C-alpha cells in the first residue's frame, strides 16, 4: 500500500511542475523578409516550440532561455504564432503576430519605424511613453541606455522587460543599440554581459548587409531601407581606421537601398545633458565616423544619451564645435516642414531622442540644430515611402512637437508598360512594383527588367538569338 501511495505522489509532483512552467520574459522578436527569431524565458527548463502557420519549429534543448530561429517565411506576409514546449503550448495571445519585411531592396509599401533611447527605469514616465507608443510598426529602435542604472540582469528583468511593452515585444522587430549604462555590465569588446545575452542580432548578414561578425555593431535591411547600428561607448570602436569603421565602409559601399539610416548611443551634435563640444565619445563619433556616413550618402543619424529631443538642419561637412557652425553647412534654408528637404547626393539630418523614460532635462541651443525641445517624453516615428522620409517627434499626449520630410527625386514609376519601339543596345528598365512587356529585343541587344513585385512578359515579347535578356525582382535597385 505504501509503494502505491509513493508512486501516486510522484505522478502528482511531476504534474504540478509541468503546470507551473510560465513565461517570465517575452516573447520578443526580430525579423527580415524570410526569417525571424523569437525569444522568451521560462521559470523552469523546457524544450522550445514555435508553431507558425502550418509549420512547427522545435529545439530539443532543455533551457529557460528559448531562442527559436524561423526560416522559409514569405516576404511582406502576416503571420500568427504560438510558443510552448513539446508538452503543451502556452496560451494564445492576440499580440502574437508579426509581418515580414518586403524583399530587401524593393519598395512595396511604406515602412514604419519607432524609436527612443534612455528609458529602462521602471518609472511612471516610462509607462507614459509606452502607452503612447503605437502598437503597429515594422521596426523598433533602441538608442542605448536601455536599462538603468547599470544594465544588470535584474535591471533588464525589472526595468526593461518585466511588465513593460507586452503589447509591443511580440510583434515589432526589435533592433537595439548599446548605451553607456548598459555597458557597465556588458563588454562590447568580448560581447559578454546581459545586453549581449538578451538579444539575437544579425551578425552574419542574415538580414541583409555585410556580416559584422559581432553583436557590438551590425546592419540589416527592411524593404527599401538599410539600417546600421554602431557601437560608440568604447574608444577603440570609434577609431577611423579600426575594425568597425572599415566594416562600415564596406557595408555602405555594398548597399543599394533607397534609404540609409544609422543609429548609436552618443550623438555627434548636442547641447543637452551631454555637450558634444566637450565629451570624447561625442567628439570622436562626429570627427571619425560622421565623415564616413556622409561619404556614402546616409540620410538620417539617430542617437540618445542626452535626455531631451534635438534635431539638426539638413547639413553636410560639419565636424566642429557648436560655435563654428554657420549657414554654409546647411543645404536648405528651411526646416524641412512643410516644405521638404530635397536630397540629391549629399545631406543628412541628425536627431537625439533620449526621451524614453529617464528623467527629462533641458536642451540647450546647438547652432547646428533646427529644433531643441526640453523636458518632454516621447518617441520618434519614421515613415519611409519610396521617395520620402517623414520624421515626427511625438510626445506622451500624442502631440507632434517636431517634424521634417526628406524627399528624393525618383524617376522610377510604380508600373511600367513596354511595347514599341523595339529594345536596342544596352538598356535597363525599372519599376517600383510591376513591369508588363510585349516588346521585342533586337539582335545583339542587352536588356534588363527589374520590378519590385512582378515582371510579366505578354504575348508578342521576343528575345531572338544573339540578344541577352534578364528579369529581376529587385525594384529600382537592380542587381
Report on this structure.
The chain has helices at 2-20, 124-132, 153-161, 194-198, 243-254, 280-295, and strands at residues 23-31, 36-52, 55-70, 78-84, 97-99, 111-116, 139-142, 173-176, 218-222, 225-229, 259-263, 300-303, 309-312, 341-343, 349-353, 369-373, 378-384, 388-395, 400-408, 415-418, 426-431, 434-437, 446-451, 454-457, 468-473. Helix content is 15%, strand content 33%. The chain has 479 residues and is α/β, with parallel strands linked by helices. The chain has six helices and 25 strands. A hairpin with a 3-residue loop joins β17 and β18. The strands form five sheets. A seven-stranded mixed β-sheet has the order 8-7-6-17-18-19-14, covered by helices on one side. The termini are far apart.
DSSP summary: helix tally: 6
Radius of gyration: 25 Å
Amino-to-carboxy terminus distance: 76 Å
The order of strands across the largest sheet is 8-7-6-17-18-19-14
Structural class: alpha/beta
Shape: globular
Q: Give the averaged pLDDT, no decimals.
A: 92
Low-confidence stretches: 1-19
DSSP strand count: 25
Major β-sheet, in short?
7 strands, mixed
Helix share bin: 10-25%
Q: Beta-sheet strand percentage?
A: 25-35%
